[in-house]
Write a structure and sequence with these properties.
This protein folds into two domains: about 170 residues, Flavodoxin domain (Rossmann fold, 3-Layer(aba) Sandwich); about 70 residues, Alpha-Beta Plaits (2-Layer Sandwich). Helix content is about 35%, strand content about 20%. It is built from nine helices and nine strands. Helix 1 packs parallel to helix 4, helix 2 packs parallel to helix 3 and helix 4 packs across helix 9. The two termini are about 30 Å apart. Bound molecules: flavin mononucleotide and iron/sulfur cluster (2 copies).
């Protein structure tokens, strides 16, 4: 069995989750191919594979625009399997709206939607989760991944999230943020702290940044993934009206996981329920 991964990831969370899934599939003897989104690059056309795994972060309760554009262009599935893997900063089920459009488009193209899996990973926008929260999220994600990949390998997959009418409407309402991003992104800039290292240029999945005289220049194709602001080693990127929501610097997933008392106050009970469900499952 051969799986081809297509992964959009701004700050690396979705990439981390998909690489964990890929590792487990390979361990079971499956063959894999792995492609990370970069605007303008050509991917293999999914004809040579048995199943596709499409990974992406939830952006405003939806899939990022480059992902829906990619799915629009994907060749006919002819009954082959497709899995959608998303990461979100919150455990809210509203985030599952991010599977609606991509899932529907895949089915219309003859792919058999065989699993929609969402894992909670730390925020790369709004506020920075504590290192303990990030570590506990990663523990929960790994346990959930273990369960999900086992089902995929055994062919017992088919976990496809149902979305009711209200969630579907809300998902469509929030999608407006996507239209605003290219405009917001034009006001991104680097401060004098910039050392011209090029890390922002390298990480941008939209190829929207180039260095001119050692300083980044931001173009018109931003989708607000926050990869540049998150990755900059000098925290030099300023993100226009989203600047106060900027999150910078890698999370330490090897940190001591947050205890129940240390779970963040924002949506605390919902996070705790999500963690405990994952932790209880494998006891
Ligand atoms: C523009 C934008 C919108 C986001 N919207 C949501 C959201 O609606 N719900 C949520 O739970 N997380 C949201 N997040 C957080 C990310 O989904 C989360 O941190 C994700 O793991 C980032 O993955 P990445 O590192 O692969 O880009 C948003 C992040 C960005 C940058
Ligand atoms: S990552 Fe930061 S320091 Fe490096 S070029 Fe970009 S803005 Fe400058
Ligand atoms: S400019 Fe920054 S926020 Fe916009 S798409 Fe590129 S990396 Fe993401």
């Amino acid at each position: 069995m051969k799986y081809t991964f297509y992964v959009f990831s701004g700050s690396g969370n979705t990439d981390k989750v998909c690489r964990e899934i890929r590792g487990k599939l390979e361990k079971s003897g499956a063959e894999t191919e792995y492609w990370r989104f970069r605007k303008g690059e050509k991917y293999p056309d999914a004809v040579r594979t048995d199943a596709v795994v499409i990974g992406y972060p939830v952006h405003a309760f939806n899939a990022p625009t480059p992902v829906t554009e990619f799915v629009k262009e994907i060749p006919e599935g002819k009954g082959r399997k497709a899995y959608l893997v998303a990461t979100s900063g919150e455990p809210l089920t509203l985030n599952d709206c991010a599977f609606v459009k991509t899932g529907k488009m895949l089915e219309e193209k003859g792919w058999k939607l065989s699993g929609t899996y969402r894992y909670v990973m730390p925020y790369n926008i709004i506020f920075r989760h504590s290192e303990g929260m990030a570590a506990r999220m990663w523990l929960a994600a790994r346990k959930n991944i273990e369960r999900d990949v086992k089902k995929i390998i055994e062919g017992k997959d088919g976990d496809v999230t149902e979305i009711n009418g209200i969630k579907r409407i809300l998902g469509n309402v929030f999608r407006i943020e996507h239209a605003a991003m290219p405009i917001i992104g034009r006001n991104f800039y680097a401060t004098d702290k910039c050392i011209g290292c090029g890390a922002c240029e390298k990480v941008c999945p939209q190829a929207n940044i180039y260095l001119k005289d050692g300083k980044p220049v931001f173009g018109k194709n931003c989708v607000g993934c926050m990869g540049c602001a998150f990755t900059c080693p000098k925290d030099a990127v300023r993100t226009g009206v989203l600047n106060c929501w900027r999150v910078n610097g890698k999370y330490d997933f090897g940190h001591k996981p947050a205890t129940d008392d240390e779970v963040c106050r924002y949506l605390g009970k919902t996070y705790l329920k999500y963690f405990q469900k994952a932790e209880d499952m494998v006891k």
